Amino acid sequence: MLSPLAIGISAAAGTIALSGLAAGGFAYAAMSPGSQLFGRTLTAPANAPRGPGELALTFDDGPNPACTPRLLDILARHDVRATFFLIGSFAQRQPDLVRRIFAASHLIGNHSWTHPNLALTAAPKVDEELTRTRDTLQQLTGAPILYFRPPFGARRPHVLRIARELGMEPVTWNAMTTDWSEPSADAIAAKLIQKIDRFQRRGRAANIVLHDGGHRGLSANRNPSVNAAAQLLARYRATHRFVTLEAWSRPHPGATTCSN
Prior knowledge:
Blueprint: H1 4-31, E1 54-62, H2 68-78, E2 83-86, H3 88-93, H4 95-103, E3 107-110, H5 123-141, E4 147-148, H6 157-165, E5 169-170, E6 175-176, H7 185-201, E7 206-211, H8 223-236, E8 241-242
Parallel strand pairs: 1-2, 1-7, 1-8, 2-3, 4-5, 6-7
Helix pairs in contact: 2-8, 5-6, 7-8
């Protein structure tokens, strides 16, 4: 028969284990791009008639006056439209660049005002971050902002609820590398190619994240990411269909220099 001390130790161990499981479950739900536990997010279609062979290039943390213009030139040469998730405070400082992105028929999305971890942010502040960014981008483009990507992919139920109340569909991804810290464009492209080809074999599209900006400063060096994007375009332009996120979501009313 177990002693009271042994029983107490066993109970404490069980409580700690359950707490660990709960913490792990919360972290997965809040941070994993594929998790739908806190609510649905748009990733990429699986087993859809048009899904295999479709690629969505998405760029986070811009607009970046150092690198975004060159990226726009590369996309134009390949006649490809992409999705840009812009930080509101940067967009306010670079209105002409925001308008250039929009004029080139790229899709613009909301990436919050200051790029906080929204899973750790109270609801009123989340509302402020998303509303201020949405309003700024809509004023600059004259078009509704219909998509939202949480910084770091971090969300809780109230984050997704607020985004939807503001008329935006939450978006995560299924293909990303640490391109923000990787100095080699070849390494970035190789890792993404591996993911894209694996999804292709599984009959799934790829929602690709690269960074044309950096949330810690307006003019981050994103040469490797821009060059990796050029490699992906050169590799897949003839064999895959590049789309913006509206191709994969429900219809919405009204939707529609960096050195080498």
